[in-house]
Write a structure and sequence with these properties.
Elements (H helix, E strand, L loop, with lengths): L10 H6 L5 H19 L3 H5 L2 H10 L6 E4 L6 H9 L34 H15 L5 E6 L6 H13 L4 E6 L10 H11 L8 H11 L6 H7 L18 H4 L3 E7 L3 H11 L6 E6 L7 H5 L25 H15 L3 E5 L9 H6 L4 E3 L4 H13 L3 E7 H4 L3 H9 L6 E5 L16 H5 L6 E3 L4 H12 L6 E4 L23 E4 L4 E5 L4 H12 L5 E5 L2 E3 L3 H10 L2 E9 L4 H11 L6 E6 L9 H8 L3 H12 L1
Parallel strand pairs: 1-2, 2-3, 3-5, 4-5, 6-7, 6-8, 8-9, 9-11, 10-11, 13-14, 13-16, 16-17
Antiparallel strand pairs: 10-15, 12-14
Helix pairs in contact: 4-12, 6-7, 14-20, 16-18, 21-25
Length: 628
Amino acid sequence: MDTTLPDITCPADLKALPLEKLPALAEKIRSTLIETLSQTGGHLGPNLGVVELTIAMHRVFDTPKDKFVFDVAHQGYVHKMLTGRWDKIHTIRQYEGLNGFLLRSESEHDCYGAGHAGTALGAALGMASARDLKGGDEHVVCVSGDAAFTCGPVFEALNNISSHTKRLITVLNDNEWSIDRNVGAIAKYFNTIATHPGFTNLHDKAAKFVEFVLGGGARKLAERVENSAKGLLLPQSEGAHNRSVLFEEFGIRYYGPIDGHDIPLLIQTFEFLKNQNEPVILHILTEKGRGYKPALEDPGKFHGLGKYNIETGEVQATDKPTYSQIYARTVTDFAKEDPKIVAITAAMPGGTGLMAFKKEIPERYFDVGIAEEHAALFACGMATQGLRPFLTIYSTFMQRAIDMIIHDMAIQHLPVRLCMDRGGLSGDDGPTHHGLFDISYLRGIPGLVHMQPKDEDEFVDMLWTMANYDKGPIAIRYPRGNGPGVTPKAKPQLLEIGKAEVVADGADIALIALGDMFAIAEKAKVELEAKGLSVALINPRWIKPLDHQVIETYARKVKVVCTLEDHVLMNGFGCAVMELLSSAGITTPVVRVGWPDEFVEHGTPAILRQKHGLTVEATVEKVLSKLS
């Protein structure tokens, strides 16, 4: 690594570097990322793939005047380093440090925040249209991975670009991956473009572009392009007639594919594109994980991970399986016995654990790409034909399909199993990924069943209950990472829907603790009993329907009811209990422990629970305050 490089404290420092120093800067950025993320965890692979792209963008354009909109924004670490945050990159995803995604509140260079795929192009078009209305001259550049093009909102934006602006640059960062390897017709289409050997028809403007980039020798374009991927591609159909690429049908000029790691070429290309008075899309080919062998060998693992060993790429092993792993193993085993069970995910076979299902029962495994709405509709269609779909999507992403859950699933009483991984706090990923809203967005839907287990054994029982429930949609939320370590029994049992588990009787206080908050309640019970109080401990199991009998019985019996949930208090589980008691005319005070009515920041669960009062100490204090 070139140690003579000056510090980069702002984009102006980058612009001042001689062109020949930029490859060394790219090497320095990569080594910094590899070293830093080995200690913090984070999205290593995506950022290693966009180093040269980000350097070229900041070399040509001028943020914050010019706007960079990154789809998902987990590939924004390099952008952060080049915009005054290099000295803070070691705090990435740490409490009170840099966020793992872009935040408008973090820097004036972050013009748009994101954490979910498919949002950038629509937002960028809005910015470009606003610029046009205001008479501005700034550039808007949207950087989108090809996986984002499996999202419906991207095509909705594509459909409007030519009508709403005359100047917008979109970069299609094509690395064949989103979180997992891309799937579907769009991914195959991009691969066809990238690998097509023929160049049969060039637009006049495209010819000028090629000459600009490649020089006067571009008259021998066919020969040059045959030996490199640096040119304009208009693929030929299987028949006799040529066809244009997809984007030009939307009125967007297409350029590429070009090498996304060739800094001089990228700079020349952006200099050309910034002077075009029409919407353009630049297709670049990059390697996810470039510069780090373990990340190249396993892009899925290094999309986002915890701390790792730099030499080997290994992460620290846990001594017990995660909920995701238990889920995948259990549903796969169920499916081997029940041919009606199918598994559906939205580009997350690794994160949800479904790689096991994919490997063992590939014919009944379906990855629809980053298209949660379609995934829900696809599951509904399967359910109408008597299949038993397990729709497996993170809680934070399932909210994208809420209309389908209401309109298609619930109204038609279709038995789709909604399996929401990361239900609750998602820690270091921050507000875009916390699964803190699924109770509120599901509990008002008539006929939908919703539950959460307190441990791994009950989790398997709930999955077995879901597998055998065919009356309508049924949902389960379960947390990220490990549970308390309870080994599931050899044969799961069916649970009675709407029936809570009374773990301990009591006369003074009733602790009703949902899911992973049950462990907090157990410890709070010990502390309250040490003060001479009689404490009932209830595992509700069911968010909907609630166990009216148990809850009302104890609410009439005790002096204080306390609910605990890993969810926002607004319209959460505790609210459901309060509504139940109000309807029953029961006036016993209710104390609620859960997350506040705000977007919770990133940080470790322990730090955030301490800050926001989801602890044993805070629970005891709240209960005692009501008793006094």
